[in-house]
Amino acid sequence: MRSSAAVRVVVTGAGGFVGAAVATALLAGGHDVVGLARDAARVPAGVRPVVGSVLDPDVTAAALRGADAVCHLAARVRVRESRADPLGYWRTNFDGTRTVLAATPPGARAVVVSTCAVHAPADVPIGEDAPLAPAHPYAASKLAADLLARDMALAGGPGVVCLRVFNVAGAVAGRGDDDRSRVVPALLAAVAGRGGRFTVNGDGSAVRDLVHVADLADGVVAALAVAEPGTWRAFTVGSGRGTSVAELVDVVGRVTGRVVPVHHGEPVDEPSCLVADPTRARSGLGWAPARSTPDRIVTDAWAALGRREPESA
């Protein structure tokens, strides 16, 4: 979707870490961008804000009226929190998606940002054909939303692409991730003296796939171009590169030039390896994770953290 074919795109969750990056990428492509968010102050400059929730049908319908496309990113995303509040997660992630898709014009295009957690963990790279086995309410609610999007698209609704994303980090336009429940923000907060010591579970050998938020934003824009009305497709979005937690600690120390304060806790029950196979995303979207190296991700996230005011004691 290049600027020569500029369209009106609605971004839900435009005030969030990923939503703001997607809105920024769409603006750079010359599109007319509307951002549905709870806080207008967090929506990037140049985006027309609509304040409200995807759980409000009237607000959502108003935001999507006349839209050519929608990028649906509004969601709750914390695994542990989802186990304590499954109803809340299903309401936001499933009912919110239903509200957005019901308000999307049938001839429009939609990208739904989902999660790799809908798949079963595996010791080999995870692609689109990996078994579906959500292990917690967050993943279950996102998989249900994916399947609803599929059914609505194949029934003649908007064309939908679901992107099943691995661990997003980094920064765009000086805006990083504030969520310290995720590994990169937690490590940088520890280095900056804002979050106590970083806890490494066991020996830190758990391997994860990190994808730069700017690469993901490019993937969302590319997905809009292939979201043909009446069709549904899913793509796995990740770097295809595995980085252990112990390796990431070393990267943070090297990039920041500081000693990372670490506490080694007991091993926990978690997948030993979660890495993407992004082959289909490369071929089907013409997408490449050009920025998704651990050093680039940490460098950009650290620079963004340095722009913020120090926290008060």
Account of the 3D structure:
By secondary structure, the chain is an alpha/beta fold. It folds into two domains: 3-168 and 211-237, Rossmann fold (3-Layer(aba) Sandwich); 169-208 and 241-275 and 291-306, UDP-galactose 4-epimerase, domain 1, CATH 3.90.25.10. Helix content is 38%, strand content 21%. It is built from ten helices and 15 strands. The strands form four sheets. The chain has a seven-stranded parallel β-sheet with strand order 3-2-1-4-5-6-12, sandwiched between helices. Helix 1 (17-28) packs across helix 7 (213-226). The chain starts with 7 loop residues before the first strand and ends in a 6-residue tail after the last helix.
Compact summary:
This protein is of the alpha/beta class and 313 residues long. It is 38% helix and 21% strand.
Gross CATH architecture of the largest domain: 3-Layer(aba) Sandwich
Q: How is the biggest beta sheet arranged?
A: 7 strands, parallel
The helix-strand sequence is: EHEEHEHHEHEEEEHEEHEEHEEHH
Distance between the termini: 46 Å
Identify the CATH class of the largest domain.
Alpha Beta
Superfamily (CATH H level) name of the largest domain: NAD(P)-binding Rossmann-like Domain
* Major sheet: arrangement of strands: 3-2-1-4-5-6-12
What class do helices, strands and sheet pairing give?
alpha/beta
The oligomeric status of these chains comes to single chain
Our estimate of the beta-strand percent is 15-25%
Poorly predicted regions: 309-313
Say what the CATH topology of the largest domain is.
Rossmann fold
CA radius of gyration is 19 Å
Roughly how much helix do the residues carry, as a percent range? Answer: 25-40%
Give the strand tally: 15
Shape: globular
